[in-house]
Structure formats: C-alpha cells, structure tokens
Design a protein that fits this description.
The structure is a single chain. By secondary structure, the chain is α/β, with parallel strands linked by helices. The protein folds into three domains: 8-70 and 305-431 and 466-504, Glucose-6-phosphate isomerase like protein, domain 1 (Rossmann fold, 3-Layer(aba) Sandwich); 109-289, Glucose-6-phosphate isomerase like protein, domain 1 (Rossmann fold, 3-Layer(aba) Sandwich), CATH 3.40.50.10490; 509-546, Orthogonal Bundle (Phosphoglucose isomerase, C-terminal domain). It is 50% helix and 11% strand. The model has no long low-confidence stretch (mean pLDDT 97). The structure holds 6-O-phosphono-beta-D-fructofuranose (F6P).
C-alpha cells in the first residue's frame, strides 16, 4: 500500500465515500437552494458551476485536506519559481514564464529567462506583421496567402485548436493548414490547395528529430523545389520553431528564420512559446498576446486564490473524487461550440500524456488510478452519438460542459438552440427521470398495465450523473487563454496529488524505437524474423502483398 492510499486524508475520503455514495443530486438540490451559488467560482470572464457534482460541503472540505496534505500550495510555488520539478529530465517547468505578462523575473539556473522570452516574442511579432501586412514576399514577389504548419503532438494540437477556435479573428488573406500525420494523404491534400509562390511552411518541432514531422517537411521542401528550382528561395518559404538549432540548420533552414524556445517548455505546454507562431500569424500579435494575458490571469488566480476558491484545484479534486473513489475510468469534454471542436483532442494529449503514469516520483508503483481516458466531441454532436451511454450506461462518466455566452462565429437563433441543449443536458444528467415520472408520462400517452410495466424500466433515467459547467462570457483570445491554463493547472494539481511527474513522456519512446527498426525491415527484401511470431507474420504478410 502506498503512503498516499494509507494517508489520513485519503482514508477519511474513503470512509466518507462509503457514507455518501447513495446520495442523489436531485435530493441535494431539493434541500439546499443555495447550492449552485455556493458551488460556483467566477474568474477570468468564466463561470464554473460545480454544484452538479456528487459532493457535499463535507466532501469538498475533505478533498481540500487531501490537497493540503499533498502540499499542493508548495508545489504550485515550486513550479512558478523555476524549480526543476520535472525530475526525470532535470528540467524546470515554465510555460507560465512564456505568458508572464507582468514580466517579473523568473530564474532558471540563476538566469532570468524573461529577457530571452521577450526577445523571441518581439521577433515573432515583427515577422507576423511582415507576413500579415503583405511585406514578407515569396520568391516571385507575391505576398503569402497560405501557411502550412508541419508538426505533431504538442507542435500541432495547440496551434490547431486555437486557430480553429479563434478563426473569426483571423487575417482574411491567410489560409491556415495543418499537417501532422505521416500518412501522405494529409500533406498531398493540403499541397493541392497551395501554390509554391505564396505558401509559407512553418516546421515546428521541439526536438527537430520527430520522424513524422521531418518526413512531411522533406516532402514539402521537395514539392517547393520542384517549382521554384531555387534552393535560395527556401529562406522565403520555410521557417522553423525548435529548441534544436543544429538540426534546423542541417535540414536546410537558415537559423535566422528559426524561432527558438527552451527545454523548460514541455511539448504539450508549448503553444505559448514560439510554437504559437501559426496562431500569431493568423490572429496577429495583439490577439496572441491577449491569449497569453488570459492564461496569465489564470496563473495569478491559481497561484494566489485559496484552495477552496481555486478553480483549477477544485476541478482537479473533483476529478480525483470520481477517478479514485467512485471508480470512474474516463472523463468527457463536451464543448457546445463548434469553434472548440479540436478541444477534446487537445485535452487528450494535455491530460493523458501528462498524467498517464504509474510510477511515483520516488520510483514506487502507484496503487491507485491516475489519468483516466479523456474523450469527447462537440457536445451537440455527442448527444446524437454517445450520450445514450452517458445517460443510461452502466459506467459513471463525469462530463465537463463548456459553452460561451457570446460567440462571434455563430448565428443568434442557432446559438439559443445550442445553449438550450447545453443547459438541458446538464440538468437531465443530474436529475434523471424517476419511475413515477415515467409512469405519469406513459399514462398520458394511454399506455397502462402490463405494457407500461414492461416499458417502464427502459425509460427510467437514474440521473445522479455528475458534470461541471463552464460558461465563458465570450469565446475570445483572452478567455480561451484562461480556459487552456485552467486545464493545464488542473492536470498539474492532480499530478501533484498522485505524486507523479506530469512533465515527462517516456511512454511514447518505445513505439518510436520499434518503428525505426521495423521501417528498416520493410525496406529489406529478406523476411523479418527477429520479432514475436505475430509481428513477424504481419510484417511479412504486408511485404508480400504491398505494392510499394
Ligand atoms: O509524442 C511524443 C512527443 O514527444 C510529444 O510530447 C510532443 O509534443 C510530440 O512528440 C512532438 O515532438 P516534437 O515537437 O519534438 O516534434
């Protein structure tokens, strides 16, 4: 048994769970009219209503005790101060410094990183202005019309999600494209829409060794050279964002066209760094700055608000309550906003790559669940797909409902319908529909007796299905920045409580290594024979039939 599961706060929560697990949210609301007001936090133009969770005031107090027991406030301070909390890589974790709009000094190894951060931001601003104002010209003298971001994971998902979310703020001349998949179908499709003379490629890779990204970057380079026939023209059409200047230069991109960031920025936390270049290109430096300002405001809240009123901490604790005590294995992200359609995918990497760990900081194995499965889709589409399971399935799956009061992309009458569904679903999950209510409904339809008795259990909704409701005042750069930072800090808080390192990702290495070996075998005429019988057979089956 780990010290966590044997700790006083954990054991007290376990006992409390046994006492409260049969409580129904419908009852809690019925007997407590002040519940919603008490269980709400408003910060950074965003309201979190967490009253539709299976908690009492006592539960919340005990969860806060757990956070205190696990030194959450001290760990927050350690992260912000530049302490090397990513111990397996011996790195500080300072995505917060990238958006430190207060510009207060932040030290890593005795050096204030803010001058470097500001210098890169200034270069980004300058470059983006030139592209956006039509002053950065391609090799035939024409302004840029299409930007192709080539990157994967954190070098794709953040910029892609934000560019989609804030499209209405985008420059009308610029079309954004994202290529992440090494499946050539994606880049072929994108290049079909672009012209060499007016396309700018942004090659994003923290390490500049990621095979998917480099393969796509080489394909883009060849495509470009086939038309331009001029190596020198590459400087006008290819820029790189990386921590690895040597590899960028070896690829053939002038390091004057490289935007730098640092190893204390994790890939999945990097959209605030130069990795946000596509965002700044599309939206302009002012909107990119506003995104950072929103995140900075959330940082301040996370650092300074008491745990009881701390939005990321409360969301983290609720997640722990369901995952570790109620046995929930997954969590749904349901944005009721088409512009946020890539948010669930972004959250998958942010959460599961951060907290999908089973070894504690001290090297011991956990005896409790860590990151659950994060999944989802725009809420309204989910309603017509998997919400059935959320309503009446056998598992408990908490949901985060996210919507904005104002949305510049939508049509007013559509928005009302969307929000009606948003409010209705959260209510339905909470209340459910009782046997008595179903019976009355059936009677009204003239269904009685045996027929009604048979139908009745199928039409009952247990309810008591928990959710958070996040209502943004509007979907704008500042609020989106705060929303992203909210989840970053939620995930960090959970990692602290679970005693794991949320900032490494050794788990993705094995697959990468094996793929490199197998790639060589696919090109070798001899059959593969060094793997297990299944892998050998599959590789050889493919090789016999492939027409590559
Ligand atoms: O999938 C692992 C990973 O290292 C992610 O953490 C990262 O965001 C992604 O690959 C891309 O890495 P890079 O930016 O170095 O190309």
């Amino acid at each position: 048994m780990s010290s966590l599961t044997q700790s006083p706060a954990w054991l007290a929560l376990q006992a409390h769970y046994e006492q409260t697990r049969h409580l129904h949210l419908r009852e809690l609301f019925l007997h407590d009219p002040g519940r919603a007001e008490r269980m709400s936090i408003e910060v950074c133009d965003m309201l979190l209503d967490y009253s539709k969770n299976r908690v009492t005031d006592q539960t919340l107090r005990q969860l806060i005790d757990l956070a205190k027991q696990e030194n959450v406030p001290q760990r927050i301070a350690a992260m912000f101060s530049g302490e090397k909390i990513n111990v397996t890589e011996n790195r500080a974790v300072l995505h917060t410094a990238l958006r430190n709009r207060a510009n207060t000094p932040v030290y890593v190894d005795g050096e204030d990183v803010m001058p470097k951060v500001n210098a890169v931001l200034a270069r980004i601003g300058n470059f983006c202005d030139r592209v956006r104002h039509g002053e950065w010209l391609g090799y035939t003298g024409q302004p840029i019309t299409d930007i192709v971001n080539i990157g994967i994971g954190g070098s794709d998902l953040g910029p892609l999600m934000v560019c989609e979310a804030l499209k209405p703020y985008g420059h009308p001349r610029l079309n954004m494209h994202f290529v992440s998949n090494v499946d050539g179908a994606q880049i072929v499709d994108v290049l079909r829409k672009c012209h060499t003379a007016t396309t700018l490629f942004v090659i994003e890779s923290k390490t500049f060794t990621t095979s998917e990204t480099l393969t796509n970057a080489h394909t883009a380079r060849n495509w470009f050279l086939r038309s331009s026939r001029d190596e020198k023209a590459i400087a006008k059409h290819f820029v790189a964002v990386s921590t690895n200047a040597k590899a960028v230069s070896e690829f053939g991109i002038d390091t004057n066209n490289m935007f730098e960031f640092w190893n204390w920025v994790g890939g999945r936390y990097s959209l605030w760094s130069a990795i946000g270049l596509p965002i700044a290109l599309l939206l302009g430096k002012e909107h990119f700055q506003a995104l950072q300002t929103g995140a900075h405001m959330m940082d301040q809240h996370f650092r300074n608000a008491p745990l009881e009123k701390n939005m990321p901490v409360i969301m983290a604790l609720l997640g722990i309550w369901y995952g570790n005590f109620h046995g929930a294995a997954s969590q749904v992200i349901a944005p009721y906003n088409q512009s946020l359609h890539r948010l669930p995918a972004y959250m998958q990497q942010l959460d599961m790559e951060s907290n999908g760990k089973s070894i504690r900081l001290d090297g011991s194995r956990v005896d409790y669940q860590t990151s659950g499965v994060i999944w989802g889709e725009t809420g309204i589409n989910g309603q017509h797909a998997y919400f059935q399971m959320l309503h009446q399935g056998a598992q408990l799956i908490p949901i985060d409902f996210i919507a904005s009061i104002e949305n510049p992309s939508t049509l007013p009458d559509h928005h009302q319908i969307l929000l009606a569904n948003f409010f209705a679903q959260a209510e339905a999950f909470m209340r459910g529909k009782t046997e008595a209510e179903v019976r009355t409904e059936l009677l009204a339809q003239g269904i009685e007796g045996e027929k009604a008795a048979k139908l009745l259990p199928h039409k009952v909704f247990e309810g008591n299905r928990p959710s958070n409701t996040l209502l943004l005042h509007r979907l704008d750069p500042k609020t989106l920045g705060a929303l992203i930072a909210l989840y970053e800090h939620k995930i960090f808080t959970q990692g602290v409580i679970w005693g794991i390192n949320s900032f490494d990702q050794w788990g993705v290495e094995l697959g990468k290594q094996l793929a490199t070996t197998i790639h060589a075998e696919l090109m070798n005429p001899l059959p593969a024979q060094h793997h297990d019988s299944s892998t050998n057979r599959l590789i050889n089956y493919y090789k016999q039939r492939a027409k590559v």
